[in-house]
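Example record used in the benchmark description.
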Amino acid sequence: MTIQLNTDKNLTIHQEYDEKIQSQLTEGLSRYSDLITRLEVHLSDENGSKEGLDDKRCLLEARITGKEPIAVSNLGNTYDLAITGALSKLKSTLEKVAGKMKSH
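Model output (structure tokens):
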């Protein structure tokens, strides 16, 4: 599973944080690593440099072999919260997809 990290112009990712995100996603999705060929992570700040609640957004797009891509997003006060929420949503969706693939 290849993980590609994308950010908007308001965020610069340092290597340590990039590695933390990569390991969090790899561990969280290890059960589905045989299904996912590529995972795209899009981090953005919804209102730029202004302050606001739940303005950090994480969009996860999972490319699955032989299927349409699955995309989920989550908002949070921090990027860590946004990533954790999006990861939880993606795991729930992948559980359904894996179940359907097994039944066919």
